[in-house]
Write a structure and sequence with these properties.
This protein is mainly alpha-helical. The chain contains 28 helices and eight strands. α2 runs antiparallel to α6, α8 runs parallel beside α10 (187-203) and α16 packs antiparallel against α17.
């Protein structure tokens, strides 16, 4: 039977080479990655309340996704590395199904389909793999959708009813799983229609009308599944999240029909162009610029290793049978390549159309590149088809494909470097805060800032990890610690010390900015800054908006004598090395307790280990402690360092000008020694 002949031609051993290339691309940083963005509210839900809470919070928009997510959490637990490995497995599974799919569609094109699957795995237009907890469900949906497509292709290649029935049922179930997880992946049915149209047009005899009828009959079971899903989604299920609410979307089209339909056409063209063309270059440009020379060299060496594996396989492990892309026009099916170009273009368009229709955009930034996932099937078909159609030499083809793989390797390396730094910044934030603040008052609202390029985007990126740290038992049934990000929208509320309630995925909490604790990890080599609004000193790299709100920080929200809380290692990873920042945070805590002897002892311990601050502002606890204990020689020695730094000195003197800081002789000395003009 043709089905089994194709199965024999799959050469599944070829995928091992693709797998090896994928490991080179994705493994370098995997142990240094953690939780990001949307990962945090799920991490908190699972850690303090269990899988049931994960399921419950997704009932508002994607209940089936919540079911899959909760079941996965029950197996993987809280360890970020487990989620990273699982997401990578899902990525490999999708690539494996893609490999089989294109081999079934073009069984004679062993080389070309090998390249399609390899490019699909390392496609650089989707860079959210490190956000593993959030995006593993997307990858499960994608893999399920591709598997559904290959079952449909297998159906077209057999006439045996005993095989056709399970193939149809399997394609219906896995197709439904795809868009039940993520509704904008309904484009998989458009991809199915494109593939069916091509296969029946190419492989079956009869008139165009007869072929169209065969396509419709084959597609009908999946069309019924799609119709049932759409009926449930539109008329039965009520989404309470604005971004996924059908009623809100319909109202947008009703109120602005002309604008919305013009937008549909424009954004569809832009999304297709982003996916097919710009995805290979724009992320590379953004990420490679952030790499230093050492990192860039490492990325290029990894790319070279991938190329060596690729070309050794092509030369030694992939003998070129007749009609398998040898470059001989007499032996090669020349029509397949231009077919792949048109199919790739159509697949990209029908994959992106539901995204645009849902009033979303395909962008190669932040998390909006997730909308390229399904369309990337078309992207690799198109680019491979173009190369094989316009270039007859194998060397030229291999060079061009190799060039794209190099671009992808460098892009993913830069992406891994970015996310590894992002995770380290978050780890430093919470570990250093645990050193500085043993416990926090109930209803504390942490306002937290990370260095530029790594800003926190949502409040749950603060209150999620904060409550895992300070309230792991969720004893009160509500958030002990709230959080608020700092941007132009929240700045006035923080300055005004507003108090307001919020509802996030059926969970209500209060943000009380009159109880704000402002913390910041400045750019550069400095430590976490935990601000006291009555005694301000800023490091050189501090953000301008932090300088605007630091005076609102309530240091008394820290319970200095409370039970010490340590970040759970299974979530935050092992404690960082106890270098200067450890002593600085402990000195800040002792300073708040007015335990000056402890501060001096910490200074001596740090000095014995030859530790020093990355920013002179971090000398302040020790400067004051020496003065309070009458050790003025040591205080003056530090004071000389502080006076030499205008970035610290001018804001400090401005903040401490006036009688409010002159409450005793030592306070007068501290300010007068640094700010003689005061």
């Amino acid at each position: 039977m043709k089905l089994f002949k194709n199965a024999a031609a799959l050469k599944l051993s070829d995928f091992l080479i693709i797998l090896l290339i994928g490991l080179i691309v994705f493994l370098p940083f995997i142990s240094k990655l953690g939780y990001y963005r949307d990962d945090w509210h799920v991490a908190w839900s699972g850690y303090v309340q269990g899988p049931g809470r994960i399921l419950d919070e997704h009932k508002i928009d994607r209940p089936f996704m919540g079911l899959v997510y909760a079941a996965t959490y029950k197996v993987l637990g809280d360890n970020p590395l487990a989620w990273q490995l699982y997401a990578l497995f899902c990525r490999f599974a999708g690539a494996f199904f893609m490999f089989i799919l294109v081999r079934l569609v073009w069984p004679r094109q062993r080389v070309a389909t090998f390249f399609m699957a390899a490019l699909f795995l390392v496609y650089p237009g989707f860079l959210q793999l490190p956000t593993a907890s959030s995006y593993q469900v997307h990858l499960v949906g994608l893999a399920s959708g591709i598997f559904s497509l290959l079952l449909t292709v297998l159906f077209t290649q057999t006439k045996k009813l005993s095989l056709q029935i399970p193939l149809v049922l399997g394609s219906m179930v896995t197709g439904a799983l795809c868009y039940l997880i993520m509704e904008w992946m309904v484009g998989v049915e458009g991809v199915r229609l494109v593939l069916l149209g091509y296969l029946y047009y190419r492989d079956h005899a009869g008139t165009l009308r007869e072929k169209a009828w065969k396509v419709l009959k084959t597609w009908l079971p999946n069309l019924i599944t799609l119709g049932a899903f759409l009926y449930w989604r539109v008329f039965i299920f009520n989404s309470t999240r604005a971004a996924t609410d059908i009623g809100s979307l319909a109202a947008t089209y009703t109120h602005n029909p002309f604008t919305m339909f013009v937008r549909l056409g424009y954004e569809l063209l832009k999304g297709v162009f982003n996916t097919l063309v710009l995805a290979w270059f724009v992320p590379l440009y953004d990420l490679a610029n952030a790499l230093n020379y050492t990192a860039l060299t490492t990325a290029l060496l990894l790319a070279a290793a991938a190329l060596v594996i690729l070309f050794v396989f092509l030369k030694k492990g992939l003998p070129a049978p007749a009609g398998a892309g040898t470059g001989d026009p007499a032996e090669e099916d020349r029509g397949w390549a231009i077919h792949a170009v048109w199919i790739g273009l159509l697949v990209a368009a029908v994959s992106i159309l539901p995204v645009i229709a849902a009033n979303r955009d395909v962008e190669l930034r932040n998390t909006f590149d997730r909308y390229t996932l399904l369309a990337s099937i078309g992207a690799v078909m198109l680019v491979t088809g173009l190369i094989f159609h316009f270039f007859r030499s194998d060397k030229t083809r291999y060079f061009l494909i190799g060039f794209l793989i190099v671009l992808s390797v460098v892009t993913h390396y830069g992406n891994g470097a970015y996310f590894s730094r992002f995770w380290e910044y978050q780890r430093q934030l919470w570990w250093q805060l645990s050193w500085r603040a043993p416990d926090l008052q109930p209803e504390t609202t942490i306002v937290a800032e990370l260095p530029g390029g790594y800003r926190l985007a949502e409040s749950y990126e603060i209150w999620g990890p904060a409550n895992i740290l300070y309230d792991p038992d969720f004893s009160a049934g509500s958030l002990k610690v709230s959080g608020e990000i700092l941007n132009q929208e929240t700045l006035p509320a923080i300055q005004n010390r507003d108090r307001y309630g919020r509802t996030f995925r059926r969970f209500e909490y209060m943000a009380d900015l009159s109880r704000a604790l402002v913390v910041s990890l400045p750019s550069g080599t400095g430590c976490l800054q935990v601000y006291d609004g009555t005694d301000l000193a800023f490091p050189e790299g501090e953000d301008a908006m932090i300088r605007l709100v630091a005076e609102n920080s309530r240091i008394d929200q820290i319970l200095t004598d409370g039970e010490s809380h340590t970040p759970p290692v299974e979530v935050f990873g092992p404690e960082p090395a106890r270098g200067w920042c450890y002593y600085y945070q402990k000195a800040g805590l002792a300073r708040q307790q007015k335990d000056w002897e402890a501060v001096v002892k910490l200074a001596e311990e740090a000095s014995s280990q030859h530790l020093a601050p990355g920013d002179v502002a971090e000398w302040m606890p020790f400067y004051e402690a020496y003065a309070r204990l009458g050790m003025f020689d040591q205080a003056n020695e530090i004071g000389a360092l502080l006076r030499e730094d205008p970035y610290f000195l001018k804001p400090y003197c401005l903040a401490h000008s006036g009688p409010q800081t002159q409450d005793d002789k030592i306070s007068k000395f501290l300010v007068a020694n640094l700010c003689p003009e005061n």
